[in-house]
């Protein structure tokens, strides 16, 4: 088994670490290439046995799975480097939402899957969003599903809904971290509570909230009702929160979708500069 990774940035390193820690991959089976050699050296030091490729092409040659953990506008260059080295039986996994599966299938001779991870997969939590390319067999799909089950909860989505799904699953940790930051800041500033204590309380609360909603299960409104004693403190504070944040997430989604539409155009022009411009 050979597993190639191109791109050892935030997500490439996260996936490698998560797969190794759960035993889903052995370092000896992994070969990584990236632009900045120091990041590769760090990974090799962290995971003895992990192989550093001299080029993207070397990472691609013979890989059963080849993960492309690069940003949208880096695809053209990387695909040019690796496309002739790939063969029909290999599986390329792209983790990048605005690069369409059909574009990858047009440019590569192999099978393609689009799987969007989330930073929280680092702790075996969160979802991974699955979109299948047309050339994958049922066995390929089952094997990829099993692999990602080791680090996440795989969820199949339509490629057309990748933006909103990624907003919830992959951008979501940043959005919620921002809100927790506000909450913690308010707690420490208004009462003098230690930041460490406030952070621990907020994090435990967030973990428990998500678990309760999934495991009871209960809806967000049901959970609000459970905590809000009629005429009590939570109900009063929720009113303030509703007034001050109403419509915020609509604005958030509007922003991500607008940026995504621009990215789709930019990626398309970079992948097919002559044909489609
Ligand atoms: N961050 C997140 O939470 C999530 C990100 N994604 C998607 O994953 C993709 C990667 O994101 P992320 O890891 O955060 O980005 P990073 O910038 O952290 O990582 C990208 C990596 O690709 C490397 N790279 C760039 N060009 C080349 C090249 N020509 N050959 C080889 N390596 C190259 C970069 O090298 P260098 O170190 O020199 O810059 C960098 O290490 C993006 O498309 C993003 O949308 C998806 C889900 C969640
Ligand atoms: O910020 C970004 O563009 C990426 C996409 C999903 C999470 N991070």
From TrEMBL:
Location relative to the cell: Cytoplasm
Record-linked Pfam families: F420_oxidored, P5CR_dimer
Keyword Cytoplasm: yes
Pathway(s) annotated for this protein in UniProt: Amino-acid biosynthesis; L-proline biosynthesis; L-proline from L-glutamate 5-semialdehyde: step 1/1
Keyword Oxidoreductase (UniProt): yes
InterPro entries recorded: 6-PGluconate_DH-like_C_sf, NAD(P)-bd_dom_sf, P5C_Rdtase_cat_N, P5CR_dimer, Pyrroline-COOH_reductase
Documented EC number(s): 1.5.1.2
Main location: cytoplasm
Superkingdom assignment: Bacteria
Keywords: Amino-acid biosynthesis, Cytoplasm, NADP, Oxidoreductase, Proline biosynthesis
Ranges where the Pyrroline-5-carboxylate reductase catalytic N-terminal domain occurs: 2-97
Domain Pyrroline-5-carboxylate reductase dimerisation span(s) in chain numbering: 159-261
Reaction(s) catalysed by this chain's protein: L-proline + NADP(+) = (S)-1-pyrroline-5-carboxylate + NADPH + 2 H(+); L-proline + NAD(+) = (S)-1-pyrroline-5-carboxylate + NADH + 2 H(+)
Stated family: Belongs to the pyrroline-5-carboxylate reductase family.
Function: Catalyzes the reduction of 1-pyrroline-5-carboxylate (PCA) to L-proline.
PANTHER family noted in UniProt: COME OPERON PROTEIN 4, PYRROLINE-5-CARBOXYLATE REDUCTASE
Protein name as catalogued: Pyrroline-5-carboxylate reductase
Organism: Cohnella silvisoli
């Amino acid at each position: 088994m050979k597993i190639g990774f191109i791109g050892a940035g935030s997500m490439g390193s996260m996936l490698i670490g998560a797969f190794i820690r759960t035993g889903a991959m052995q370092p000896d089976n992994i070969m990584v290439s990236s632009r900045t050699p120091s990041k590769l050296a760090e990974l090799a030091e962290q995971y003895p046995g992990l192989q550093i490729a001299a080029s993207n092409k070397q990472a691609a040659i013979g890989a059963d799975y080849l993960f492309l953990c690069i940003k949208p506008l880096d695809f053209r260059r990387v695909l040019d480097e690796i496309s002739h080295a790939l063969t029909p039986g290999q599986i390329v996994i792209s983790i990048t939402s605005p690069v369409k599966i059909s574009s990858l299938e047009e440019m590569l001779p192999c099978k393609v899957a689009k799987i969007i991870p989330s930073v929280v997969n680092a702790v075996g939590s969160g979802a991974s969003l699955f979109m299948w390319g047309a050339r994958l067999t049922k066995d390929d799909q089952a094997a990829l599903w099993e692999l990602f089950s080791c680090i996440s909860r795989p969820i199949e989505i339509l490629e057309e809904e990748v933006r909103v799904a990624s907003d919830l699953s992959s951008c979501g940790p940043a959005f919620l971290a921002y809100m927790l930051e506000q909450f913690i800041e308010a707690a420490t500033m208004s009462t003098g509570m230690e930041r460490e204590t406030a952070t621990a309380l907020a994090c435990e609360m967030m973990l428990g909230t998500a678990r309760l909603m999934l495991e009871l299960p209960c809806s967000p409104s049901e959970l609000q009702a459970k905590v809000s004693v009629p005429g009590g403190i939570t109900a009063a504070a929720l009113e303030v929160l509703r007034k001050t944040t109403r419509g915020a997430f609509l604005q958030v989604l509007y922003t991500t979708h607008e940026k995504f539409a621009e990215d789709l155009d930019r990626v398309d022009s970079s992948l097919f500069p002559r044909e489609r411009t």
